[in-house]
Amino acid sequence: MNLKTKIEYFTTPLYLESGRILEPYQIAYETYGKINSDASNVVLICHALSGSHHAAGQYPNERKVGWWDGLIGSGKAIDTDRYFVISTNVIGSCFGSTSPMSDNYPSNKPYRLKFPVLTIKDMIKAQKQLLSNLGIYKLKAIVGASMGGMQALQFAVDYPNFSEKIISLAATYATQPWTIGFNKVAIEAIRRDPRFENGNYEKDAFVENGLDGLAIGRVAGHISYLSPSSMDDKFGRNYVNNDGLFELFGRYEVERYMEYNTDNFSKLFDPMSYLYIVKAINTFNLSRGYDSLYEAILRIKAEVTLISFRSDYLFFPSEMAHISKMMKRNEQKQTYHEIDSDYGHDSFLVELDKFDDIIKEALDK
Description:
Blueprint: E1 6-10, E2 14-15, E3 21-22, E4 25-32, E5 42-46, E6 72-73, E7 78-79, E8 84-88, H1 120-133, E9 139-145, H2 147-158, E10 163-169, H3 177-191, H4 212-225, H5 228-235, H6 253-268, H7 271-282, H8 293-298, E11 303-309, H9 317-329, E12 334-339, H10 347-350, H11 356-364
Parallel strand pairs: 5-8, 5-9, 6-7, 9-10, 10-11, 11-12
Antiparallel strand pairs: 1-4, 2-3, 4-8
Helix pairs in contact: 1-2, 3-4, 3-7, 4-6
């Protein structure tokens, strides 16, 4: 794939939904495939909370492939022999785009908590500016899951003529109290960790040992991404072999799994970025800025494909079904699929074979 992280720099101000301005800023992105002569084959990929622009392929010095490598590539559902695919890193993320730990120009000191609160609207506004800089003014499709699915839907509402197709997975029309409650665990765990220092920690302070508060918060998040049946199948009531059953801190396999994954995550992801992105997820509401959700949905002109997962306990299938019903009532072009999966919210990363044909058909038809 000849992978390379590209950075686009912007000196023009980005006017945010809060009324504040981000200037200057930058966006990291990757591209796959070749753009055609009239730029009519461009597909934009939007990532979830902990994702990045690295959606496909594998760098020589890294063990992991891109987070959606099973979907993006030659002959795959998002076929790079046919489409020019752009995967961007949202502003606020710690993987190359401007974030709270970026320098607060003109100083050489990080923004930290002086960084403006971002919304999903702000994220897609920045992405649209990136595409404009690249000479791309209309898309074949926008595809995203979870927070990426929110971005896809926000594009459909805010810029109705920008993309022919919208494919949104495991998302919602507005983040509900249940999900905000899960996110609150992470927020408070980070804030109350003494090493967080109210955001005044040094850059890369947690690369070696991680931040305990983020690790704890990520446990709550990880539980919300799974489902009871997937945890039963994966772990059962198996106990760690070399831990004693009557040791106070002896562990079941599910506990060890949580420790390992969340500890590693806290070394890779900046806690300030986590707080800002979670805030953007919590405040997501397609109807904000419009008279009602009905009025917002009515603006959509793209062909919309909605995919939910039966065991998703973060964004319930009923939330995606609600969008489908509204669009159907308005006689707008839409299809809705509820996938029978036991992997919870993470199904969009795990059971690709259950929906890759849906995405392929939506792009090809």
